[in-house]
Amino acid sequence: MDNNAETIEGQVLDFLDLTTAIVSAYVSKNSVRPGDMPDLLASVHAALTGLGRGAPAEAPTPQKLTPAQIRKSITPDALISFIDGKPYKTLKRHLTGAGLTIEQYRERFGLPRDYPSTAASYSEARSALAKSFGLGQQRKKAAPKPAQPVDTVSDKPKRAAGRPRKAKEAAEG
Q1: Between the CA of residue 43 and those of 6, 60, 94, 123, what are the distances in Å?
Q2: Domain range list for the chain
Q3: For the region Disordered, what residue ranges are annotated (predicted)?
């Protein structure tokens, strides 16, 4: 049997034929530099042979980012994602779509713990909006009550609160 062929459920799979079919379909819809073709062919072939052996294909480990790359990813208007290179005002929804939390994202790319998850201009706009609504301010203390005048003694005792007395005429009848 050929080195590049394997039998699965009675069918012979030729990894070279599969590799050429996959790469030709990919190249027909995507632009690939001629110098990148050997690497593309090798990586597709390695992935197919790895699948045939049942061994999981190794995920490429992201490279450690330099401090300059980290600084360039933080702009006043947006944060540049290290996943897809696109700018975002907030990373929360983008990372959730990628199945990550902000902590996992920081760990995956070796980012510092104080790496922001929202753009500075976005945070400032939200802060200004909240302050315009009066949020974030301490409540004002109640004005002190004025001193009450001393009660004067009157000749009549105060009536007890409650139901008024019945009229005399109604009581006599």
Answers
A1: 18, 11, 28, 42
A2: 5-53, 67-122
A3: 133-173
